[in-house]
Amino acid sequence: MEMITLAMAKGRIANEAISLLENAGILFSDFEDKSRKLIFLDDNRSIKLIFVKAVDVPTYVELGAADIGVIGKDIMLEDPKDVYELMDLGIGKCKLSVAGFPDKNLIDRSQLTVASKYPNLAKEYFNQKGIRTKMIKLNGSVELAPLISLADCIVDIVETGATLKENGLVVLETITAVSARLIVNKASFAMKTECIQNFISDVKRGLEVYS
Ligand code: PRP
């Protein structure tokens, strides 16, 4: 049988996605969250699960190194790729938000310095509001930026809100809700249609049990 390569990032979304697949009867018995191993086969040896950095998932899928990917909508919005986005998995739910110190007037200023992992999204959001921005691209620990006066505010995903709270920051505005999506390489969808359709049917069944 043809094998499908599935790319995702270790962490919150992967743990939820693997539970979802288990509910669909796709088992990765040797998967361990803490393992440093990067490739796992499902028990039926029909799916090869590869772990890559979250921002790289769409690249692997676009280039055909993976047939399918599970990735947050935030990453697809920031850097769109030429792939099919087939399904909202309804997992990894969070909100892309503007956050900063609890200063209600902050985001009414005409110019802001904004730190974010999502500079394109952030710039577009403030442009639409007529606010000029100096964007600072960071790759993590974004909440630090306002605390050390590197930026006036941040644009980042908020899930539980714990990171903001523990750093004395609050959500100032919500830009959009995001969740994990199933993306598919265009050529794979044409060449491995049956396999991929079967996988999608399994995932849909898993979703019904999961929710
Ligand atoms: C993400 C995000 C926030 C945090 C939000 O960071 O960038 O920092 O999670 O989650 P919370 O609302 O549940 O606290 P991640 O854990 O990916 O780490 P990073 O800052 O190193 O990117």
Automatic annotation (TrEMBL):
Q: What is this protein called?
A: ATP phosphoribosyltransferase
Q: Which Gene3D superfamilies match?
A: Periplasmic binding protein-like II (3.40.190.10)
| Gene transcribed to yield this protein | hisG
Family named by the database record: Belongs to the ATP phosphoribosyltransferase family. Short subfamily.
How it assembles, according to the record, is: Heteromultimer composed of HisG and HisZ subunits.
Q: What is known of its domains?
A: Lacks the C-terminal regulatory region which is replaced by HisZ.
Q: Which domain of life is it from?
A: Bacteria
Q: What is its EC number?
A: 2.4.2.17
Q: Which HAMAP family match?
A: HisG_Short
ATP phosphoribosyltransferase catalytic domain segment(s): 53-204
CDD domains per UniProt: PBP2_HisGs (cd13595)
Give the keywords, sorted.
Amino-acid biosynthesis, ATP-binding, Cytoplasm, Glycosyltransferase, Histidine biosynthesis, Nucleotide-binding, Transferase
Q: Does the keyword Membrane apply?
A: no
GO molecular-function term, one example from the UniProt record:
ATP phosphoribosyltransferase activity
Q: Which reaction does it catalyse?
A: 1-(5-phospho-beta-D-ribosyl)-ATP + diphosphate = 5-phospho-alpha-D-ribose 1-diphosphate + ATP
